[in-house]
Queue: 4 jobs
Job 1
Amino acid sequence: MPIFKAPNNDTFRANSAAGLPDGCVEITEEELALLLEQRKLPIAPPSKEQRRRQILDLIGCFNLIHLEKDWALLESERQRLGITVGQAYIDNVTYRALSDARTALAAIDAE
């Protein structure tokens, strides 16, 4: 049975390319073996800066200054209202997200 490879390197065994993703091309057993070997290669972990960027992107902050500004505003509001840290963490999704992000960034910096 012929082997087909999609543009994203997914492979399929099918009698024809009909019904397969657009751009599929037929490949040989040797090309399939090479693709499967490449999939076994270890993927380098992201750098510290990439991990920091991912955390900031997840919470919608453009940079660390933006994160700290948002944190300072929430923290001053929490103190003004006399709310405990634990209660703010439980009740306020934004407070929890920023707190978790600051903790994760501190862990990355400590490595």
Job 2
Amino acid sequence: MTPTPSPVPVLDANVTTIDPYWAALLPFLIPVLVAVIGSSFLAQIIINVFKNKTTRRQNRRDDATFALEELKRYRKLVIRYGNVEDPEPVDANRDTRIAIQGSNLSVAGAQTRIKGIDVAIEAYLRVGDAFAAQDEFVSAEDEKAKFREVLRLLAIKREKQS
């Protein structure tokens, strides 16, 4: 009686070959296994790339939103101090608060990585500081124009990230 090949390859210490049944299936099994593993790996890469792109877009949008909030806070201070009647010529509290908020605005703007935002913010900070100190050479229209320039850059970037 001849033994039938076992469905599971059995190796013992004296046998160094694979069962012919399994040897015949290997040319078909290996490409299938490689295809399944490769497609799983490729699918995982595609999913990670999409997740990273989505996360990056959301982070950029959050950065632009944060910069808009800092711009709003800075402008609120500038308008408040710029509209004071009979201001003190030297007001350390005013200058400190405006300097801190201006610094926060500069940092928030830099985090957005918007081309030209640093120049626009710097120009607005100069005009805003002068307006808050009630410099006679800086008008409310000058302050408003610089504010709108920064606002436009931030709003455009934020909308592109939506």
Job 3
Amino acid sequence: MYFDLNNDTELNGLLDFVHDATFQLEDIVFEETQKTVLLCVERKEYVRFEPRKVLGFKNPWIYQLKKMKLSFLNVDSLSVDDQAHIGMGDICDFELFPSEIVLRGAVPIKLFMKTSDFRVVLERD
């Protein structure tokens, strides 16, 4: 599956796919010459299966770990706010300003990307 977004009205649709996805700060790649930020994220997606008893309880759900690549294009600069030095983050919300994209999560980490022309690409299985 491949999504290429270039306007803020499509951000909520993108958020449906990456909400609660986690990432490691050390895995963020900022290609300054190509003006691209690559964020490899993982998200638990629950699927139903034939229930079986585990410790006396029936649990009809298991999760699969989905890996996705989130690319931010036309990025002039990247700033990471990790005051707690956690080293990993998650995605709960995108905030789009005229020249900046901010990723916020439940974990107190924020990514600030200055951009000249908003564009996001999501690649997933």
Job 4
Amino acid sequence: MACDICSKSGVPVESLLEAYQSREIRYVCTECASVINAKNSSLLSMVLKMKADLLKRFMSERRASKRLALQAALDREAAHARRR
């Protein structure tokens, strides 16, 4: 069987996980698998950093909106108290 990426034949090939397979690429040689695994690791690191950054932004925005809502409630209460 030949590698579906580099077309080398006569070398051991391994099946990609189903999630990573495409119609044209299912089996890869050890060399191509090594390159794929390195790229996958790099992408996972990038995604995890982006996820952490997005979550931090979400928490900051949520905190700000909660503080604004609290301040608006306090302002309404103060205005109501002044009208009495």
